[in-house]
Amino acid sequence: MADKPVLSVSIVTPDGRVYEQKGDFLIVTTSYAPMGILPNHVPVLATLKVDEVRFKHDGEQDRIAVNGGFIEFSNNVATIVADSAERQGDIDVSRAQSAQERAKKAIEKAKAEKDPDNLARAEVALRRAINRINVANH
């Protein structure tokens, strides 16, 4: 009897590998929609939104806050290259909450000054902070 196929997932950032695991089911949020990947899924290359990556293995589920990037999947190997990523247990919630407050203030300032470039940067910073907080609190 053949062995059950498994997924191999690796998340890397410019600072190095953040996560590596083998398991059953990967969930990512692409720029189009959430996507679930099971073993033997068709090849995929897609950009990722600022959101959590969930990976099920050995009856557990890992959550990783991913800040953009892309996923490449083929031959049961998923590689996620992200601007930054943090495992659920590594997230400093108070630091993320401080970043959220700074981003909110920056958004208000950019709106008052009618500065679309700073507004866009502040909105991305806010999404990243909220993502980190949400992943940490699951």
TrEMBL record:
Main location: membrane
Keywords per UniProt: ATP synthesis, Cell membrane, CF(1), Hydrogen ion transport, Ion transport, Membrane, Transport
ATP synthase F1 complex delta/epsilon subunit N-terminal domain mapped to chain residues: 7-85
Mode of membrane association: Peripheral membrane protein
Record's signal peptide: none
Entry's Gene Ontology molecular function annotations: ATP binding; proton-transporting ATP synthase activity, rotational mechanism
Transmembrane portions of the chain: none
Binding partners and assembly: F-type ATPases have 2 components, CF(1) - the catalytic core - and CF(0) - the membrane proton channel. CF(1) has five subunits: alpha(3), beta(3), gamma(1), delta(1), epsilon(1). CF(0) has three main subunits: a, b and c.
Family of the protein in this entry: Belongs to the ATPase epsilon chain family.
Protein name: ATP synthase epsilon chain
Organism name: Levilactobacillus paucivorans
Gene (name only): atpC
